[in-house]
Amino acid sequence: MVGPVSGCRACGGLISVTMADLGLQPPSNAFLTSLAEAASERRYPLRAAVCERCKLVQVDYDVAPEELFGNYVYFSSYSDEWLAHAAAYCNMAVRRFSLDSHSLVVELASNDGYLLKNFLARGIAVLGIDPSDTVAAAAEKVGVPTLVEFFGEDLAKKLALDGRQADLIIGNNVLAHVPRLNDFIAGIAVLLKPRGTVTIEFPHLLTLIEHVEFDTIYHEHYSYISLYAIEQVFSRHGLRIHDVEQLSTHGGSLRIFASHADRPGLEDSDTLRAVRTSEYAAGLPVLETYSRFAERVELCRRSLKAFLADAARDGKRVAAYGAAAKGNTLLNFCGVSRTDIMMVADRNPHKQGKFLPGTHIPVVSPERMMAQRPDYVLILPWNLQDEIRRQLGGISEWGGKFVTPVPLVRIHP
Ligand SMILES: [Zn+2]
Known about the structure:
Elements: E1 3-4, E2 17-25, E3 44-50, E4 57-59, E5 61-62, H1 65-69, H2 80-96, E6 104-108, H3 116-120, E7 125-129, H4 133-141, E8 146-147, H5 153-161, E9 166-172, H6 181-191, E10 192-203, H7 205-210, E11 223-224, H8 227-236, E12 239-247, E13 253-260, H9 270-281, H10 287-313, E14 318-321, H11 325-333, E15 344-345, E16 363-364, H12 366-371, E17 376-379, H13 385-392, E18 401-404, E19 410-412
Helix pairs in contact: 5-6
Bound molecules: zinc ion (ZN).
């Protein structure tokens, strides 16, 4: 499970074509509390490659989960936007699948019960499954029964034997975090009632490719999913995807709907056909699409290095904004150090006073960074640049400029 991956985690095919070789990287959330820790910092190969046969994009080196996730716990209920997304989903699901007091809804990676509590409130039985005991305890507190387990075929068989098959299985933003993809989907097939439906949400590979979002590649994300690749996995386990919705979450996600392939009356929806067509048009079934992406990633690296070299030559002072995983992938890939970027600002007080993994750039508050009056502020979460520029406000007072790094460096007037 840990180390180089020998074959495609979906079909066992060769994963020989590189989509983004991001070099040796520390786990993206492994912030240092002091520079003394730098000597013992571990780095692992971070490379996204594509399977020659099924075209699943995946990292080809697995890091031990305890090193990736450690004590880091994210509670879904902290985000208002995500809570609204969950409530809207519940309304849709109850209507569309005619759920009532005889139904069972199971969520995989159910977190703190942020979603299932909506079904509970309507008198529908629920079961959460999540390997983190911390979030599971929070879920139990709001009345959502939760099994603290990793989901797979074994657990699904136990539940099915127990007479606990599901009318609806939900998996939101969990698929990318699953190292053993086949075992996970096999489990879904076992747990799902004959007429049940499973819905799964994941960031869409097509968006990643179109926007050159190679900086969303981390060790924590084992796969980067297209409809093309995931339909093959579902079909291998007797499941058929029959509908899909396109969502704006995470910059562009898909929500797929699947059922047992032999369920009578299944038909492909118009949206499903349209997404398939757009993936074909973008070349997702063709290997060259992925090697061309690797070239764009390399151009981005050259562009950022050239910008930093020019800034150093001209005696300009560069700071950055946003101490998130996304920025860490980018900075480590480009071999940036604290001589290139003096500090990175972040609003999260838990990150301030620490150092970025790999580059060891100090993290400070936005106020402290602004007080330094930097010549350039490099916006690492470049997808949120409008919001961040508004928040930080007037750096033009002292002639400062905002800079976005991807797909190529752009200096904003
Ligand atoms: Zn494959």
